[in-house]
Amino acid sequence: MTVRAVPSQNQKLLICFRGKSCPWDASIPISKRLRDEMKDYDPRNLYAWDPKAYMNQPQFRVLYRHFDETSVDALTGYRMLQADGYKVMMKPHIRDEFKDDNIKLVVSPAECTDANTSVIDCDIGETLKKKIDAQIEAACEADSTLEDRIESEGIVFFFN
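Below the sequence we write its predicted structure tokens.
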């Protein structure tokens, strides 16, 4: 769903598993075996179940509930959520809910949510990504050890 280059995030990843959930909460699987197993799941993530392992409205509610409880700009009360263009988030009544809760929804264009760049302006995404990729390639050509470092650490060390 996302790549994080900076530690200590307050937003959790949502992982949608294949399976049935309770009708009132997609974060609770119907299966008792799965409910018991959840105590061993990584607490840094949110979990939801769907028969096709897809984020539909009930699974989105799990993510939205967490985001609503854990995010706020103390000065303005305004928040921004950058997301891929999931169909459930694009429905007018959901977009209205974002507006009502003072959340600016910014949708990432396709192919712009990788480790190199995650931009919020679809007009510059492709151009910016190409420029960043070119800079990384040039740095790797100048220092061949960078390829192994990028493979093991990602690109965050470029910014330290």
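The first strand starts at residue 13 and ends at 18.
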